[in-house]
């Protein structure tokens, strides 16, 4: 197994340590490995969805009603979550509130 040194800002370090203290992970390393593995699995899912979309045939324009339905679903999902939007150099990123 390889080792990669990781430096975390204080707030992220505290977040990771809290996960360990609550018993969700044995140590910080286990948590970070779980995060990287989840990111890898998610990327695989996204790539598969993109390929499926590309192979599904030509794109069709959505109607105004379809866009309205999508907007409504997004609003409903956002209403069920407790998060705020944090601006950083990458744009807007959801950040769980505590």
Task: Give a structural overview.
- By secondary structure, the protein is of the alpha+beta class.
- It has one domain.
- The chain has 3 helices and 2 strands.
- The protein has a two-stranded antiparallel sheet.
Write the layout of secondary structure elements.
Blueprint (H helix, E strand, L loop, with lengths): L9 H12 L6 H28 L8 H16 L3 E6 L2 E6 L2
Antiparallel strand pairs: 1-2
Shape: elongated
Strand order of the largest sheet: 1-2
For the record, give the distance between the C-alpha atoms at the N and C termini, rounded to a whole number.
34 Å
Question: Tally of extended strands?
Answer: 2
Order of helices and strands: HHHEE
Count of separate structural domains: 1
Compact summary:
The protein is of the alpha+beta class and 98 residues long.
How would you describe this structure in keywords?
98 residues; alpha+beta; two-stranded antiparallel ribbon; 2 strands; elongated
């Amino acid at each position: 197994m390889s080792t990669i040194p990781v430096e975390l800002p204080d707030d992220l370090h505290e977040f990771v340590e809290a996960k360990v203290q609550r018993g969700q992970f044995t140590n910080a390393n286990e948590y970070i490995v779980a995060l990287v593995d989840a990111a890898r699995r998610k990327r695989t899912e996204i790539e598969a969805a993109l390929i499926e979309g590309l192979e599904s045939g030509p794109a069709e324009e959505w109607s105004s009603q379809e866009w309205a339905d999508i907007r409504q679903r997004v609003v409903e999902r956002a209403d069920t979550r407790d998060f705020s939007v944090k601006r950083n150099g990458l744009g807007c990123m959801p950040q769980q509130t505590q």
